[in-house]
Prior knowledge:
Layout: E1 14-19, E2 25-27, E3 43-46, E4 55-60, E5 67-74
Amino acid sequence: MEKQRCPYCGAEMQRGWLRSRRSDIWWEPDPAMPAPDAEQGMRCIAAAGSFTGAEAEAWDCPACKKLILDRSRRNLPLD
């Protein structure tokens, strides 16, 4: 099984999924730091299917409570 160390505290992280039940998962920039244009604003992290939610692989650090998300690993089939 793949192991990941937290880049913040060095503890071992737990692999899991960031999931939604019926909608896309979005990232939105801090409104105090406006994006130069609309194209660099909100990003869809994972798109929901017709009858399913959305998911993206994520790593959780129980020690420092950080969540690491790899945006290249998304829209994988629900098990």
